[in-house]
Design goal:
alpha+beta
């Protein structure tokens, strides 16, 4: 699988882009790391490349197939410390209670 992003631009606010014409390629069987200052767009670029954000300009392809508007996420993110996002000893109802705020 070959993941490619070409000329990606995106901003959360209109006329305030945080990514401007970014291009990156990830060859098959390679692991990459992105480094940059807080707020520089690392996570945003990863979300775009994995299909979680779709309102960007440019093209993201996986094996030369455009992933935009596929309806599923052909690439997935692995966060830096996934073990810290949820206590693995909790039952599912406990996990849901943590995020549920009744009106």
């Amino acid at each position: 699988m070959y993941l490619n992003a070409n000329n990606i631009s995106f901003g959360y606010k209109k006329n305030k882009p945080i990514l401007k014409n970014i291009s990156i390629s990830v060859p098959d069987n390679k692991v990459i790391g992105l480094m940059g200052d807080s707020g520089s767009g690392k996570s945003t670029l990863c979300k775009i490349m994995s299909g979680y954000i779709e309102n960007y300009t440019g093209t993201v392809t996986l094996d030369r197939e455009v992933i935009k508007n596929k309806g599923y996420h052909p690439a997935q993110l692995i966060f830096q410390h996934p073990e810290k996002t949820m206590n693995p000893k909790w039952k599912m109802h406990k996990v849901l209670e943590e995020s549920w705020n009744p009106p």
